[in-house]
Amino acid sequence: xxxxxxxxxxxxxxxxxxxxxxxxxxxxxxxxxxxxxxxxxxxxxxxxxxxxxxxxxxxxxxxxxxxxxxxxxxxxxxxxxxxxxxxxxxxxxxxxxxxxxxxxxxxxxxxxxxxxxxxxxxxxxxxxxxxxxxxxxxxxxxxxxxxxxxxxxxxxxxxxxxxxxxxxxxxxxxxxxxxxxxxx
Length: 184
Prior knowledge:
Helix content is 61%, strand content 0%. It contains 6 helices and no strands. It has helices at 36-76, 81-88, 92-101, 112-149, 155-162, 166-172.
């Protein structure tokens, strides 16, 4: 149906006019475009979390190596597998495997109480480092969810900022509305 002269054609949400033709809508109002300052703040926070998680993982690796060496030395000095397992929280098989990995150790001559105290302390440090990493990971996940809810970033940009895969971002944030995808 042709439009009467002097009246503007009506535009449907799909971008079609009442006459069936496509209408250019670049100037049409968009839904909440992300604020540049908000985007920069979020990108900085995610970068900081990525760095803190990297440091936490490094600390966990070094604490694990030190604790494993203490386990092997304690076993070499005569502590039983069950005692070491109870002190460290590791299962018997893991303790045995750790002890067998160090084959060039000699008895240290340290008293049993010193070895028990060192194992307890290093194991607690390792558990605390794991809890710290978990807290940072939870905050990162909350930032990711906030970015998606506020349509500040899409999955690919979040993956780039966090060092995670886009698939991990999608799986961990199911149910959160996504920003509209740009067609290329």
